[in-house]
Amino acid sequence: MRQAKVLYKNEEAGLLTQLDNGTFVFRYHDAWFNATDKPPISLTLPKNQQEYQSEYLFPFFYNMLPEGTNKQIVCHAMRIDKEDHFGLLLTTASYDTIGAVRIIKENS
């Protein structure tokens, strides 16, 4: 199991988990979910439910990944399998992202 903190404008909004069977879970933190002034991190992950499950990396997070030559360079330099989307997300989405969401590896 691998986990990552999901930050929205540098505040922890939730937790993204890849389970041992390869499926994914995104869960809003209780405080974020219950706060009326906190927005959803994405239109595809609205705050009308607190936990989402998927067999694949959620499209919102997948769209944060580099593509083409940039993906090849990062995968080669960081020794990441090109099919390890979660590992690639952890490596590339912690600092320089487009938008308000960043992904930080959970220290466990």
From TrEMBL:
InterPro entries: HipA_N1, HipA_Ser/Thr_kinase. GO terms for molecular function: protein serine/threonine kinase activity. Residues 5-103 form the HipA N-terminal subdomain domain. One of its GO terms (cellular component) is cytosol. Pfam families: Couple_hipA. NCBIfam families: couple_hipA. PANTHER family: KINASE HI_0665-RELATED, SERINE/THREONINE-PROTEIN KINASE TOXIN HIPA. This is HipA N-terminal domain-containing protein. It comes from Carboxylicivirga sediminis.
